[in-house]
Give the backbone structure.
Amino acid sequence: MMGFPNWVDLLLSLPAVLWAITFHEYCHGYVAYKLGDDTPLKSGRLTLNPLAHLDPIGALMLLIFRFGWAKPVPISTRNFKNPRRDLALVSLAGAAGNLITAIVCALIVRLFPAIFFRNFALSRFILLMIMINVGLAVFNLLPIPPLDGSRILYVFLPPKAMKVYLYLERYGVLIILVLVMLGVIQAIMTPVIMAIFRIML
């Protein structure tokens, strides 16, 4: 399941990808809103409509490689009571939403094994939901700008290191693509994803 998907997996992956990126970004916006920032609401991102969150390249990456990204939800840390803590919570929210989705799907497998094993399409879809959501969560927690993991790292960085990190952010997508082509990200992520996958199932 970690390689290039066949046409069945590709077809079944489409709704899984749309849900994964949509719920991921919605969770960012929802937590930010609850912490006092109405920027996601004003920008139309506090919604489960996938069209509001879709990034074509990131969605294609998620569809093919099982990790990718969506359009970042805009937030304003000035609206937070505790900006550093609240930024970390907002950044963690997306991955948490994906892991919750994966856990729910894993519980379906555990609680209804007979139904799961009798229906190939359903079982494959549920497995893809778990894999894609876990993959999106792990990928976004990598400390590479502009991924969520870098936002969490901001909380702990001294001012000088923060300037360097913010400078790198403009080249973030290019850095990620180069690391993917070199196989670095796959080498880091695959053992983690498979370990979580095995624990859940």
Notes: The mean pLDDT is 88. The chain has ten helices and no strands.
